[in-house]
Hints:
eight-stranded mixed β-sheet; 588 residues; 22 helices; alpha+beta; single chain
Amino acid sequence: MSKIRVMDEQLANKIAAGEVVEKCSSIVKELIENSVDAQADEISIHLFEGGIKEISVIDNGIGMDEADAKLAFQRHATSKLYKDDDLFFIDTLGFRGEALPSIASVSYVSLKTSTGDVGTFLEIEGGKLKTFEKADARKGTIITINHLFYNTPARLKYLKSEQSELANCVSFVERFALAHPEVRFTLQNDGRTLLQTSGSGNLHKTIHEIYGIQVSSKMIEVKNSNDDFDLYGYVCKPEILKSNRNHMIVIVNGRVIRNQDILRAINDAYYTYKPDIKYPIVVLKIDTDPTLIDVNIHPTKQDIKINKMNVLYDLLVETIKDALYQNLLIPNAVERMSNFNPIKQEIIDSVVKETSEEYTPSSNVQTTFDLGLSSNTENVADKKEPVVVNPLMKQLKLYPVGLAHGTYIIAENEEGVFLIDQHAAQERVNYEKNMKALREKKVSTTNLLFPITIELSQGDFLKVKNQEELLLDMGFEIEEFGINTFVFKGHPTWLLEGHEEESIRRILDLIIGGLDGFDRVKFNESIAITLSCKMSIKANMHISHEAQEVLLDELCACDNPYNCPHGRPTIIKFSIYDLERMFKRAMN
C-alpha cells in the first residue's frame, strides 16, 4: 500500500500558517498589505488585549464582490499574479495567496466587504465556511480575527504577553505608516488610540506624527538617484542615536524590508559619526525596477534580494555622507541634558564663570603642549597644507576664551558658548591627517637611529610575512632578522615621534587580527583610528591659548569636525538663549 498521500488542504493551511502567522503583528501585516493593495487611503486597526483576543482591520478600498470574497480564502488564490512572467514584475505587497487561508485555518474570521453594490458577509472557523450571506453596501472591507491559534495550542502557548504583542503591532504599523504617508492610519487597543497619522503624503510630517518634534526636528532630507535606483527619505543627526537597528527603516518599492546589505551601507555612511554600538534613525524609500529585486524568497516577504547591490551601496553611502557633511551637526547642550547624556552641573558652572571673565594666560596655562607640531619657531600657520574647509563650521568663527577642567576648550561667538573636548577634537584632526597620509602614493620615510626588532610567534610571523608588501607600501623599511623576527629600520614620517615601537606593534596586531578577508581600506581606517588616539592630547592636560586656536582652526578644516573617529561628539553648544534661561534673564 502506498505510504505517500496528498496532504489534506486544511492540514496544509495549518502548516503554512506556521510560516506566515508567527504572532499578532504578522496578521496585522498581512491584512494591512491587502488593504493597501486594494487602494485604501484610510485604514483603521482595532486590537483587543494587544491582538491576542481580537484584531479588526477596516479600510475604504475597492472591496470584493461575492465570488472573490469566497475565493479569497482558498489556498494560492490571488488577484495579483496570473502567469509565470508576472513574478518578475511584482508591484503589489501581496502575491502568494497564502495569508488569508493560513490565518483562517488557525482562528475565527469574519469578513464584510463590498465594491459599492451589494455587500458580502462570511464567517470561517478553523478554515471551514460557516456563514455566507449578503450584507450592506459600504465600499471597502472589514475583516476581524478572533481566538488566534485556538485549534493549535502549541502555537498559542508561545504567544508573548499582551504588552509584547501590542508593542510588535504598534512597531509594525509605525513602519507601514512611514512607508505609505499618503494613507491615513489609526491604531487602537481596547478602545484607546495609540497612533494616528494624517495621510497627508508628507513623509517628514509623518515622521513628526510618529516620533515627535524632538526627532523630526533633527532629521535631514536626502534625495539622489542613478540609472537604477531612486533614493528619498530622512536621516538623523548623530545626536539622536538608538541602541538597536529597529529604527533604521528601509522601504523598497513601497515594501518595508529588512536587508542586511542595505543596513550595512547606512551604518557605513555614519562611520566615525557615531559609536559602533549606536545606530541612527533613518527612513529611506528606494524605488527601482521590479526586475532588479526578488521578493519571493520567504513567505513573510520581509527580506529581498537586490541585483546591482554594489551600485545601491555606493549610492546610499555617498548620499548620506554628503547630507551629513552639508549640515551643521553641533548638538545643543541643553537638549542633550534633557534627553540624552547629562552634563555635570559643575561643567556648566565652569563655562559660565570662565566666559564671564577676560582671558588671562597665567590663569589658564599650566603646561604647554605642541599638538605634535614641530618644535622650531616657525609660524604654525605656515606649516598647514591647503584644505577644503567645512563651510558651515568656518562661518561659526569660534574664539577660544578658556579651558574647563583641563579638558574642555571654552569658545564663544555671537551665537553662544561652545565646549570642545580637546582630546576628541584632536583625535578627529589626527585621524584625517593619518587617512590622508595613508592614501598618498608617494610616502615620506624617515630612518631609525636604532632599528626596532620585533619577535613573533610562528603563526603571527607568517601572517605578517604574507602582508610584507603592504608594510613596504606604507613606508616601512622591514627585513627578516633571524627566526620569526623582523627588524624595522625606517618608518613613515606621520608616525608619532617617541612612540614608534608602540605604533608599529599596534599596526602588526591589526594585520595579525584581520588577515581573514583582508580589506586595505578598512585596514587603513583601523590604523588611522588606533594611532590618532595615541597621538592626541589627553584629558586634564592644559594647553596654551595659541594651541587652542590651532586646534580649533584644524578642527574646522576637517571633513567631519563633529565627532572623533570613535563617534563621540567633539563640540556642543550653549546658545545665548539657553544661558539666559539658566540665569533667569529669559523667563519663557
